Every structure is written in C-alpha cells, then in structure tokens.
Amino acid sequence: MKQIVTLLIALIVFNSCNKTEPIDVLATTSWTAAFAECAGAQNVISLAPTSLIHPSEYELQVNDIEKIKNAKFIVYAGYEILASELLEMVDTSKQTLIKINTSYNIDQLSSSVAAIAKQLKTEEIASKNISSITSKIDSFKQIILTYENEKRQVCSHFFQQDIINELGLDLINIFGPQPLEAYDFKKLNEPATDLIIDNIHNPIGAPLEEILKVKRIELVNFPGTNGTRSLEDVINYNFMKIKKAIRK
Length: 248
What we know:
The protein is an alpha/beta fold. It has 10 helices and 8 strands. The radius of gyration is 20 Å and the shape is globular.
C-alpha cells in the first residue's frame, strides 16, 4: 500500500510537467508483448525492459505511470510483481485489461492470442500467426522423433515443461521452481536422465548436472534473451538448443 501511495503522489507531480502519446497496447513484459504482437497488435510497449533476465520481477517506476494512464489495452499474466499495483491504477471505464496465460503449450498459446485478438479485432492476423506457430512446432516435433537412436529422456525445470511436451521429448521428471534440496537428487534420476533442461530466467539445475553427470541446457521463455524477439523466435531458439544437445 505504501508503494501505491508513493506512486500516486509521483503521478500528480509527473502529470504537471509531462504528457505522452496514447499507447495502443501496453504489456507487462516481453512475453505478454510477444503474445500481443502475435495477435496482430502494432504499437506494443513493454513495461519491463527486455534486457532483464527475469522480467516478471520488474517493479513499477515513476515513468511507467503515464504509460499506464495512456494505454488503451493492457496485457498481463497475473504473476508479475507489478500486477497488483497495475490493477489498482487502471481505469476500467476507459481501458481494457486482458489477462492471458503465457505458455508454449499450443492450446494455451492459441487461446491467449485469440483472447487478445478478439479485443483488438485482429482475429484474421492472429489466426494466420497461430497456424504458422502450430506448423513450426509440428515440424520440429517430427524432426526430433526421427532421432530414434538418440537419448531423449529429460528432466525439466517446472517452467519449461510445456515446450518439451510439445516437441515430443520424453519428460520423465520435473524440478523447481524452488531451489533443489538434497533429497531431490535421487528422485530426479529415476529413471535415468539423459538431459537436464533448465530455465534461463531462473536456473537452479546446476547442482543436478554436477551430481548426475548429465548435460544441462537452459531454454528461454521471455523473448529478448539471446536475440529472440517473438514467440516464434523463442520456439526456434529452444528447438536448436535441444537438437544440438540430443544429437551429441
């Protein structure tokens, strides 16, 4: 509450000397922004900088207040640290809040993109983009399934399981998102693990890699990391990391 009061006071001061142009779509992070762009949004601004390794931990700054005030549509996921402050600052009589599920599960991804497109009235563009992503995931899955002699049993970070399932890998164990405890290690190697897939935004699998002597890779969720920008960029990046790891 104290932070909200501080932000509101800052807003009064900020309004007296600054004006910004209207924003079509304001997204909380690069991930929600990527969903909006996939849905057909053209003018999308993200509150959290794309340079952050874990954008959901971004906290509202004074210069964000005017952005929120001038946004027509606001896309958020609900797990962001700034979510509660954001919701209290939005004027729902003039602005539209769109809550989505950020996931690379194709059904959930499609549903979230469609929800944004419905509000923006860009359903045709969204449908084409969803079809393109679905086709890409299907083709990547078929490539992975052709590696019959390769090891594909993976132990995954909690926040990477969706893309792993979509790509047809054998997900045998899940760890996190909390740091690993000593009793986790034996459990996470039954059955034997071929590959550890960690989350680049919250990596906790290094001790597991050291103890099990199994290769570990880090996959991306939030676009902006390692040259990614769109949902398709992230899917491409993750596929190439997996492909390289299981072909060795």
